[in-house]
Design a protein that fits this description.
By secondary structure, the chain is of the alpha+beta class. It has a single domain, classed as OmpA-like domain (60s Ribosomal Protein L30, Chain: A). The chain contains 3 helices and 4 strands, in the order βαβαβαβ. Helix 2 links the parallel strand 2 and strand 3. It starts with a strand and ends with a strand.
Amino acid sequence: MENVQFESGRAEIQAKCADKIAKLAAWMNENRQVAIALDGHVDDTKANDNDPTLGGRRVSAVRGALIAAGIAPGRISAGTFGAREPVCRDATDECLALNRRVEVLGARP
């Protein structure tokens, strides 16, 4: 499943990620036995993305979008790992952008 990316210091769903969420919701509506887990991450190298609550707000944004698309809240669990689980460790803008994400993971219902 694809990660949902975020702008630095922000928790709003970007237009380019709305399609990812819509596709995930459609798939979940077709596969009603499926549950997912959402894990929020931040970019810890930039001061404006190092807010300890930011990963949680990002998860809440994705969760809210899925619920608005008809997914039962009980099928979505949430967690936040903050900066502890970067997917990229380089200091480039492209790499840091990959770390500002909500990961969508399969979970057992």
